[in-house]
Amino acid sequence: MVAAATAIAAGSAFGQSSVTLYGIIDTGIGYQSSQTSVGSTSGGRSVVKMLNGVLYGSRIGLKGSEDLGGGNKAIFVLEQGFNSANGAQAVTGLGFSRQAYVGLANPTFGTLTAGRQYESYYTLLVPWSPATRLSGFFGAHPGDIDSLDLIYRANNTLVYTSPTMRGLTFSGSYSLGGVPGSFNAGSTWSAALQYMSGPVGIAVGMERVNNSTPEGGPWGANSTMSNAGAEAGVSAINAGYQTARAQQRVAVTGGYTFTQQWSVTASYSNVQYIPGTGSKFLDTAIFNTAGVVLHFMPSAAWDFAAGYSYTKATRANGIDDPASYQQVSLAQYYSLSKRTSLYLMEAFQRAGGTTLGLDGAGNFINATASIGDGMNGAPSSSRSQFAAGFGIVHKF
Questions:
Q1: 3-state secondary structure of 1
Q2: Reported CATH class of domain 106-395
């Protein structure tokens, strides 16, 4: 009898688990000037359309943990994105497009997870990314070429994150390419270090995305970001460099909180598109981006943010007047309750200089504006673009 009671107690102590169902619905109406399609520079028209997931990204998910004893836990997340305007999957063909991973966590040794998830580069830099206050639709750096917005997740990924010690956290990730005969082709790796202490925070990270075609050429599995091209991340900013052998990113983000009402964040990134023998361009294309966001929260209900970013390409591939992009973004939020909010956002972008067209080296075209992240298939047909949106968000 005593033994049975002891066994039951032990099972209760070491088998406790929890599962949480959660979700966000984010829907709005937006205006965009001079809209066309990627690769086109003519025929642009203004458009008013329904927007989905502008502020947070509509989703439904399950997350849970099980106590394994000794401070160890098994954890999991299954999260599906969807289009609240029409009910469709956020990414066609994926049952859990946002996240699908399982792992182990220990307060002393850290956390190790496996599956479809965010890379270390993004996770540790995101607290001070422009999209955190401004959203990716209106505040992401042009084309989100530095991957500081949250739309990209990597398949087949192992992520290790250390415990936080004296404000320092380290994380490293590796995404297996799965290409026969090559361990490197199609793979992605990243590493990042974060420091937080009181009002100050800073993070530095690096990421490399390898084309599944080792010498460059048509994008293959996990070559742009993830999903075998389903989340390609190709915009008017980088469309001429789609045949890169690899992409490489180095970025620094940081912030300072002055008071409960005022804070500021800043970011810098260096993005390189590295050619191979099969690429349609010859020299490594380099884009440098710097940005700043000022945040003001006068009360628990009101929240305001304003941001500016400047992106500049370096001379390469015969281009003497390399592309540049300047963007101003504004955001206003009002909380009706803890779970329901209204938002209004605006952005203006101005492009200058010359970039490569889809045909590659020797095909020079005027750089055109493209507000939004790398999933934006509707850049401007001219140097300038304005966008605005109004929406409602409900969390459960």
A1: coil
A2: mainly beta
